[in-house]
Amino acid sequence: MSRTSIALGNLRAVVIVIVLAFHSSLAYLASLPASAYRFDSPPYLWQAIPIIDHQRWFGLDLFCAWQDVSLMSTMFFLSGLFVPSSLARKGSWKFLSDRFVRIGAPFVLVVMLLMPLAYYPAYRVTASDPSVAAYWQSWLALPFWPSGPQWFLWQLLVLNVLAGAMHRFSPGWCDRLGRLAEAMRDQPVRFFLILSGTSVLAYVPLALVFSPWEWTHGGLFSFQLSRPLHYLVYFFAGFAIGARPLDRGLLACDGPLARRWRFWLLASLIGFGLWAAPTSATLDDPNAPLSLELAAGFGYVLACASGCYALLAICLRFASEWSRALDSLSANAYGMYLVHYVFVVWMQFALMDATLFAVGKATIVFAFALALSWTLSAAAGGASFGVRLAGARR
To answer: Considering its fold, how many domains does the chain have in total?
Structure first.
């Protein structure tokens, strides 16, 4: 296995740890309202913040804002990286059938079975009747079926279907994307500019038409109205790089991206600032000037690209050696993503009355969610059904 492959596997482990830390921190943001969101009141903001604790710390706001900007883009980028090799090995039909089993089936099962369990505490904190029967009645009265963090899976499945269809009906496009990425393998700045420029076209117009925070829901499906095309750009940016050998391209461990990790880390901090400053000025102002909204949109694009680059560069530079712990985390990352939210929300609920400061509570929630979801995913990986659905290696 090449050093780049090891680094990307370790990056997968790092990403799932950040996801768990992000969700574990949401109950303790200083920017939250004084009381919990009511379960039966639109726009149903409890989906994003199920529990609101009385302990708060602004540092967690900064951490969560930074991750909200760049982490999902990085996840779509990583998801696209290995699609070309899988398509070449399996062909379009086998690839798509495997994706429906590996992504579609877990999405339906987790949303239908685990999300009602995960969101019960969000109902309990504001309910006059906390019984399970009353909760189920309120759940069925919702105009949609909440999917929680699993919204990522159905959008990822759609992008995989699009990639499979294009491979089947326009096979030359994969090679063209690969040639484009190969031509810039020693020019990460040029690729950054192309990625950012394409993302501007995909994101900024939608962010102006809709609020950057606005979601829509229908049945099991939820998505953020301003971001679907932005995520498509990152998925196919990863696809383009993955269409050529990874260890000889932009993601080489001894390449210019990895060598200049300090530059990209600084760029990510600057990019976050360019997004945060105008966003904070427009957040509670429905009549904010167009110039500020444009600045926030451009800042978001730059923060996403620089944050993705920084995480890639740091892992390529410092995480290219095999580690038993990281290898296990990487192997179980998908299963952990599927089940962790139940543990996160219930632990936040259990700690509401504890006399601990915010960071202490967030740390306990994170530690329990990490341990329990890791253990459950590893246990599921011991059965062939678990391997098939969760993707964990034996």
So the answer is: 1
